[in-house]
From TrEMBL:
Keywords: Membrane, Transmembrane, Transmembrane helix. It holds the Pfam family DUF2065. The keyword Hydrolase does not apply. PANTHER family: INNER MEMBRANE PROTEIN (PTHR38602:SF1), INNER MEMBRANE PROTEIN-RELATED (PTHR38602). It comes from the Bacteria. This is DUF2065 domain-containing protein. The keyword Cytoplasm does not apply. It comes from Pseudomonas marincola. The chain crosses the membrane at residues 6-23, 44-60. InterPro entries: DUF2065.
Length: 61
């Protein structure tokens, strides 16, 4: 199980690095816009992301 978790974390790092590598200006602009959002909106975005990820895992597995 720990090996699968490690593999998943490696994939997350690869996916997270794609946008800053390909579009550094756009990524920086998005990061600046994120700093302007309220805590509530950031939490809602995080919740939506977690729910979407969980649903996709359920559908794929």
């Amino acid at each position: 199980m720990w090996q699968e978790i490690g593999i998943a974390l490696c994939f997350v790092l690869v996916l997270e690095g794609i946008l800053p590598f390909l579009y550094p200006r756009g990524w920086r602009g998005a990061a600046v816009q994120l700093t302007q959002l309220s805590d509530r909106n950031l939490r809602l975005m995080g919740l939506a992301s977690m729910l979407l990820g969980t649903a996709l895992l359920y559908l794929l597995h």
